[in-house]
Amino acid sequence: MSRLIVSSIGPASSVQDSGRPGSQRYGLTPSGAMDRLSLAAANCLVGNALFAAAIEIGPFGASFTAREGAVRIALAGAPRNAEIDGRSVAFDTSTTLNDGETLTLGFARGGAFSYLAIEGGIEGEAMFGSLSVNARAGLGSPYPRPLQAGDELHVATASSAPERRIELPPATGGPIRVIMGPQDEEFDEENKALFLDSEWKISATSDRMGFRLEGPAIKHLHGHNIVSDGTVNGSIQVPGNGAPIVLMPDRGTSGGYPKIATVISADLGRFAQLPAGTGFRFKAVSVAEAQDEARKFAQLLRSLPDRLGSIEGVELNLEALHGANVAGSAVSAVDAGTWHILTDTQSEAEEP
Amino acid sequence: MAATLSPPRLLPSGDAAITVEFSRHIDDAANQRVLALDRALASGPVEGVTETVPTYRSLLVHYDPCQIGFDELGERLLALADRPALPTARARRWRIPATYGGEHGIDLEDVAKALHTTPEDIVARHVAGDYRVAMIGFTPGWSYLSGLDKFLHMPRRQNPRLLTPAGTISIGGVQTGIQCIAGPSGWHLLGRTAVRTYQLHRNPTFLLEPGDRVTFSAVDAKTFAEQDRAAESGEVIAELIES
């Protein structure tokens, strides 16, 4: 058994996995990683289950020291400067932090959340099946709060498995896709158009509960109070001041502001990674289109193990992917529109 | 009464949830239908549905779009909602002790003044209520109760408080509620209960279910303090008087 010591860490960094859905009817929010693809990629690199608990590191810097043995780690998500005692560490690869060595991470560049996965996961007591931190409800393990300097995580000692790299589809820009509703009728056509046609920026006051948006004020037709109803990750509610808030995994499970639209599930991670202050736009899509994207996103997640390569070979084994696809296995192409590779393997027949 | 029910509206909440809306208002009949649909889904699960969240006026149905699409699930939900609500089967009834006024109910005096009556009258009316857990939401265990005496209906505070204590019993609009963990609230604080509607290492973790009936009994501050200590060690303070 090794230990990973948190030597320094900024706010908004916590242990997260896929969260604890299932108790929203009791007011318990699901929590879980802001960017599930990056969490899964980091875990995949160290041989973990895709949604094992890892450290979600917010926009600020952090450093971690291995004690009582080596620790195999992998970084994915928002890129940032990363080094171990002076040697540079690449994202999307695994590496080993030897006993006594310190991993030092800078501020996030071009994103907000990075994921540090540890081979074997993080030892803790699952609550409702999850280690995810939900500080308000006193949940999360090994600490029911964001990480602080001095915290110690009990982790496995690094195995002798070879280091790996993973080939992820290049991230793309493009608008954040939404489905209008469930309360878009609380807004007139002019304000719905204002919502869809304006450039928005994420406010620096955002957190894991919600991302506040800066842009034009959206006006309601009949005032800003509705009888509370349920929320989902990506619900875009418009409070009285007209500045939309996109609800994130630590959201309240119900809310009394009209929800003009909902970010589609396939775009939630990409949305979470928009750095504060960067301009972006929304685009309305149909439920059917969003559900196509959701299925493609699920396929992408399933394909992650097949995207692993040895640390020496930089090429992705495209041939193997093609072969698997032809054979009709779960490994398949990813969305051509969102992820600009492997478009020629896209097969209509795979859609249910 | 069969076949006269108006169908609920199906509103997409993104690509992985449907809001089944029975009303846009706080409406007892709508809430009964929400709870009936919730029970129907619990007793006859639809494949792909991952969880349901009842509220006053709608049932939020989370689902996996890889397993079932919006249209198919929508049809199934409409069919289930078309059945008349059964008389509230096995609704449990709880008696919840609460201490009113003083440091535990800092708005009681102001509420009495605003409604041109005495604090005793406010307490008597609140205790006399026969409530139903219409929904649980916002934060763990925050139980919204329907059935508040019309006399006690009043708008929420102009300035919501950022931190109100665990166990707060409050009123806001046409509702009253039991707040479990400390947090923000714009409602009027009448009192506190030692009952934890959510307590992590207790069985059950969540005490109340949507649809449960609730009455309050007034206790003094000293009793509250004793009950609070017992509750802290995991004792269930609420009394199950009917199940």
Topology, element by element:
The complex is a heterodimer of chains A (352) and B (243).
Chain A: E1 2-9, E2 14-16, H1 36-45, E3 54-57, E4 62-67, E5 71-77, E6 80-84, E7 87-88, E8 94-97, E9 102-108, E10 114-118, E11 152-155, E12 164-166, E13 176-180, H2 189-197, E14 200-202, E15 210-214, E16 229-230, E17 235-237, E18 245-247, E19 254-255, E20 259-263, H3 268-272, E21 279-280, E22 282-284, H4 287-303, E23 308-310, H5 318-326
Parallel strand pairs in A: 13-22
Antiparallel strand pairs in A: 1-4, 1-11, 2-3, 3-10, 4-9, 5-8, 5-10, 6-7, 6-9, 12-23, 13-20, 14-15, 14-21, 15-18, 16-19, 17-18, 17-20
Chain B: E1 9-12, E2 17-21, H1 28-43, E3 49-54, E4 58-63, H2 70-81, E5 93-100, H3 108-114, H4 119-128, E6 131-136, E7 143-146, E8 161-164, E9 168-172, E10 175-178, E11 183-185, E12 188-192, E13 213-218, H5 221-232, E14 239-242
Helix pairs in contact in B: 3-4
- Order of strands, main sheet of chain B, comes to 5-12-9-10-7-6-13
Number of domains of chain A: 2
Helix content of chain A: 10-25%
CATH classification class of the largest domain in chain B: Mainly Beta
Radius of gyration of chain A: 21 Å
Distance between the termini of chain B: 27 Å
CATH names the topology of the largest domain in chain B as: Cyclophilin
- CA-based gyration radius of chain B: 19 Å
- Our estimate of the beta-strand percent of chain B is 25-35%
Please give the alpha-carbon distance between the first and last residues of chain A. Answer: 45 Å
Mean pLDDT of chain A: 88
Which superfamily, in CATH terms, is the homologous superfamily of the largest domain in chain B? Cyclophilin-like
Strand content of chain A: 25-35%
User: Average pLDDT across residues of chain B?
Assistant: 93
Please state the overall shape of chain A, judged from the principal axes of the Cα atoms.
elongated
Q: Percentage of helical residues of chain B?
A: 10-25%
Structural class of chain B: alpha+beta
**Weakly predicted, low-confidence segments of chain B:** none
**In order across it, which strands form the biggest sheet of chain A?**
21-14-15-18-17-20-13-22
